[in-house]
Amino acid sequence: MAKKAAGRPAKYWLFKSEADCYSIDHLAKEKNQTTFWDGVRNYQARNMLRDDVQPGDGVLFYHSNSDPLAVAGICEVVRAGYPDHTAFDKSAQHYDAKSSPDNPTWYMVDLKLVKKFEQQVTRDQLKAEPALDKMVVLQKGSRLSIMPVTAEEWKTVCRLGGVKLPM
DNA sequence: GCCAACGTTGGC
DNA sequence: GCCAACGTTGGC
C-alpha cells in the first residue's frame, strides 16, 4: 500500500478501458503490476487526473465495449497526475500537436493492480444493486473515461467482487 | 459567442 | 449495426 495522499481521505474512481485494447490482464502482466494511464483526451477527465486523483485513491477497473461489461478488479493510484508524454509522440495513437512538454495539455496517473476480482462484477449486477443506482457509470449518456465513485459505491462493488474492505 | 454539422463513444 | 448522447469544430 502506497502512502496516503496528504491532507485528505482516499477518494474513489472508476477508470474505463476497452478490454480489447487494455484489459486488467494486461495490467496484471506489467512490471510491478503497475502502468501509466495514458490516452485520456477529454478535458473533464483530464482535470480529474491532474487535480483530484491522488496516490492512495482506489480505482475500479471497468471494461467497456466488451462482453461482458464489467468491473474487473480494483487498483490503487501510485502516482499523482503528470504530463501524458504519449501526446508528444507523433507515432502514438493519441498524439496531439497542441500539447507540448513546455505546456502539456494532457495528464495521466500511475495505477497499480490491487486485486483482480475472482468473478468480475457485471454491469447487470451493478444495475441490480439499489445502492448503486446513482453510480455515474450507470447513468444514461455518461461517457467519461474517468468518473468519481462514492465511498459507499466503492464498498458495495468491492463486496460484490468478493473483496473485503481492501483499503 | 452562437449553433449546425460532424465525429466519437459506448450501451444495447 | 444502430443510435442516443456528448464533445469539438468552424462558419458566420
Automatic annotation (TrEMBL):
<dbReference type="InterPro" id="IPR002740">
    <property type="entry name" value="EVE_domain"/>
</dbReference>
<dbReference type="InterPro" id="IPR015947">
    <property type="entry name" value="PUA-like_sf"/>
</dbReference>
<protein>
    <submittedName>
        <fullName>Predicted RNA-binding protein, contains PUA-like domain</fullName>
    </submittedName>
</protein>
<feature type="domain" description="EVE">
    <location>
        <begin position="11"/>
        <end position="159"/>
    </location>
</feature>
<dbReference type="InterPro" id="IPR047197">
    <property type="entry name" value="THYN1-like_EVE"/>
</dbReference>
<dbReference type="Pfam" id="PF01878">
    <property type="entry name" value="EVE"/>
</dbReference>
<dbReference type="InterPro" id="IPR052181">
    <property type="entry name" value="5hmC_binding"/>
</dbReference>
